[in-house]
Each structure stands twice: as structure tokens, then as C-alpha cells.
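Data card: per-record layout.
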Amino acid sequence: MFRRLLDAPYLLLTLVSLFWAGNIVLGRHIAGHVPPATLAWLRWVLAILILLPFAWRAMKTDWPVALRHWKLLAVLAFTGITLFNTMQYHALEFTPALNVLLIQSTGPLMIAFWSLVLNGEKLSAGQAIGISLSLLGVLTIICRGDLAVLANIEFNQGDLWMIAAMLVYGIYSSLLARRPKLSQLGFLGFTLTLGMLLLTPIFIAERAVSPPVTFDARALGAIAYVAVFPSVLAYLFFNRGVQLVGPNRAAPFFHLMPMFGSVLAILFLGERPHLYHAGGYALVLSGVIIATLWAPKRVSPVRSS
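The structure for this 305-residue chain is written out next.
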């Protein structure tokens, strides 16, 4: 069943959006309780401990290939593991989760930009229309059906940190098209381990100036969730989805995150559903479908570098 799931890229990418939406909502909930670099470092350490029993054989087999491509793996680990998540958690200390969800919905634009710069890959007309339509749906949800609200949005340092984080993640997503020919578990094991090691100096520096962390049920629950769902499963699914369909076809699924985020807020925070939710969802799903169906066929999902 799991093998069948790994051959269903659009289901994988949908689950990724759900897991990452939960990560944003939880990251905001835990902000100020666990510092950002500490949360990110503990997340990756636990994720690696969960992954290694399943991945170590693949990593051992893939070691010669990984060694030949260590520079690319290091860049992928630094952008996608070390920097992005730490910057996102830092942003959530200063800005609401809805702002982060809105900014994260620029993912398709960031990926399209870096795919053009780094890979020479252009958007098709259908992809551009689909991204625009789903972005309109995102704005409809976040602005509660009144786009005039956008004129009054105030950007703080948290918003700027999140914009920078999305630029970084656009590099990671685009470079996945060049990933070496490693197994799924081997690639994830190497990038998570490298990313955690590169994050360690930042973690040590933060611990030197931050108060001790209280590992109560709230902190432990948050760390457990972010280690399993947005980390091991989401990165495995996202990497596989991009491998199968390419960065630009995978990118519109970023727009599902605000949709899932609002659903999570309704279910767990007691927010009431409104008509604009239904309208926004319809636009988002329409955009994702259009961008997926009208995307150019991908001849070679993975390029060796």
C-alpha cells in the first residue's frame, strides 16, 4: 500500500500541504515556548532517529553516489532543512499563522522564478493561469471574501523573515530537479542528517543566550508532531512528488496550505465556517487542477548532476 502511495504524486503533494499547514498552526501555538532554532534542531534530531532504522541500509548502498554529489546535497540540506524551517519558526514569533500561510502561498511564484534561473524551466500558460486562480482563492480565504482587506495588511519583521524563507525554499524545490540518483530513503537520510549538522552551531548559539526550555506536555507534543508529519513524511512525500512531476507542476499544491490551515482553525480553534471559505476552496482546487492538467509533460523526472 505504501509503495502504491509513493506512485501517486498528487495525493502525496496534497498530504504534504496538510502536514505543513499543521506545522504552521502548531508553530504559532508553540511560539515563545520553544525557541525557533531549538524547535527546528530537536525536530530534525528526532526525525533522524525515527528514519534511520528504515534508511540506514539505503544510505550505506547510496554512499558512493552521495559522496560524489556531496556539494549539491549540502546545498539542498542547508536550504531545505537548516534554513527554511528555522526561519519559518522565527517568523511565527512575530506574525500570525494566517500571515505565514499567505506568504507561503507565494511558493509557486518562488519556485517558478528559481526553476527559470537555475534550470531554464518556464511556466506553461496553463500553469500560470492555474497559479493565479489558486492564489486568488488563497486571498479570498485569508481576506474573508473582501480583497480590499489587502490594502490594510501591515508587514512586520516576521513577514519579512517568512518572505526570505520562501526565497530559500524556492531554491531547494528547484534544485530537487537535479538531485542525484539516490533512493528515496537514502536521499532523505542524507539531507536530514546534513541539515541537522549544519543547524547545530545555530542551535548552540541560541541555547547560549536563551532561557532553559520547559519540556512539558505542550512542548513534547509539538516536537513529536513536527518530527513525524511535517518532517519525515512530508519531506519524503514532497521529494517523491517533485521527482515524479517536476517542481513547477508540484508548486501549485502550496496553495492548498491556507485552505487546510483554515480548516484546522475551524476544527481545533473553534472558528466558524463561512461562505467565503467555500468560494476560496473552489478557486484553489480549480487552480491546482488547471495547473496540473495543462502543465507540459515531464520527459525526465530526475536529472543527475
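Known properties of this structure: Confidence is low (pLDDT under 50) at residues 298-305. The chain has one domain: 14-293.

See the next section for split statistics.
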